[in-house]
Amino acid sequence: MNVKIIGGHGGVSPECRATSYLVDGNLLIDAGSVATGVSVSDQAKIDNILISHSHLDHISDLAFLADNCFGMNDKPFDIWTCKEVEDNIMNHLFNDAIWPDFTKLPSKESPTMKFHNIESGDSREIGEYKVHAIEVNHFAGSLGFIIEKNGKAIVFTQDTGPTDKIWTAAKKLNNVVAIFCEVSFPNRFEKLALDSRHHTAQTLKKELSKMPGDVPIYLGHLKPNYLDELSKEIEEVNESGRIHILSSDNKEFSF
């Protein structure tokens, strides 16, 4: 599997894009920056979209993706998420007040987007992948995903604070080759991080014992205003050398 970090930050600035990971060019995980981060022709090649939760930095570019690719394909973008997230997106984004309802455009019979529900504990065959959806410790219907293909599995927690279910599931597998997780705030903001259900470097350090061992960890969702401080604190807990910081976008990893 090839994982392209279109955007790997927990905020937006001229140098930082919000969360969007693209697997093999056709499976998108979250849509915080897909429309601004890849060409329209590459956007049109996406088949399936996993949405972890409905916070704006993970869904905003669904609006522009639909607008950019309107009428280009003979099938809709298939969007996979839980019912709570679908309802949030439809009620607050694709509601014909903030943005057109692309589940009915160009027509109900041939829409630009189509939602499919996947709930925590579900496993689905989605394209070439087996996708396991697992609840994580965050808001707005948050799911993490374990994605399997060709005998390899990758864990994507997206946004989460200290959590358990996804690590329990991952440890039952013997084919995990990478973990994509997050650290959002410096250690001095630990209370804020925990209240908003995110990680600091110190809370991540405690989390490491829950994860499958000897697997590389890639940390995103760093807040743009604290990049230097976060990078230093993460390196201080990187005793094994298996932690890699997604400090810049447009990086690709092959597993």
From the helix content, strand content and strand pairing, which structural class follows? alpha/beta
C-alpha termini separation: 5 Å
Biggest β-sheet strands, sense, barrel = 7 strands, mixed
Q: What percent of the residues sit in helical stretches (DSSP H or I)?
A: 10-25%
The CATH homologous superfamily is termed: Ribonuclease Z/Hydroxyacylglutathione hydrolase-like
CATH class: Alpha Beta
Poorly predicted runs are none
Radius of gyration: 17 Å
CATH topology: the name is Metallo-beta-lactamase, Chain A
Order of helices and strands: EEEHHEHEHEEEEEHEHHEHEE
Beta strands, count: 14
Number of folding domains? 1
Instruction: Kindly report the spatial arrangement of strands forming the biggest sheet.
Output: 6-5-4-3-2-1-14
Percent of sequence in beta strands: 25-35%
Record the SSE blueprint.
Layout: E1 2-7, E2 20-23, E3 27-29, H1 34-37, H2 40-43, E4 48-50, H3 56-69, E5 77-81, H4 83-92, E6 113-117, E7 123-126, E8 129-135, E9 143-149, E10 152-156, H5 165-171, E11 176-182, H6 190-195, H7 201-207, E12 217-220, H8 227-236, E13 243-245, E14 251-254
Parallel strand pairs: 3-4, 4-5, 5-6, 10-11, 11-12, 12-13
Antiparallel strand pairs: 1-2, 1-14, 2-3, 7-8, 8-9, 9-10
Protein name: 3',5'-cyclic-nucleotide phosphodiesterase
Domain Metallo-beta-lactamase: 17-221
InterPro entries: Metallo-B-lactamas, Pdiesterase2, RibonucZ/Hydroxyglut_hydro
